[in-house]
Predict the 3D structure of the following.
Amino acid sequence: MNKIETLENKHKRELPAFAIGDNVDVYFKVKEENKLRVQLFSGIVIGKKGGGLRQSFTVRRISYGEGVERVFPMHSPLIDKIVVRKKGKVRRAKLYYLRGKKGKKATKVREKVVQRKESE
């Protein structure tokens, strides 16, 4: 391994597996003056970018009728935890088309339903 891979492996964190289209809660540490508090940002993952330690993901939510997007570095020490609320089933790598939607359509992605075959 070269030096970059060694350094990346040292700083990688274990995070839950989530995909594009999933509803997630991101607990992000925010520093205000001399205090450190945890702020919740929940929404739909509309894209992932990069690889390794430089990987990031974008979360979109509707706040007071206005769309808000935030990009989080995947392995940032400021991310306290990530909780996957719902799994979504999508057929695209980026969900940028949600930017043009309004109301409930802007927040809905088909939920993944696991179907089981009945044994005969």
Observations:
- The chain has a mean pLDDT of 87.
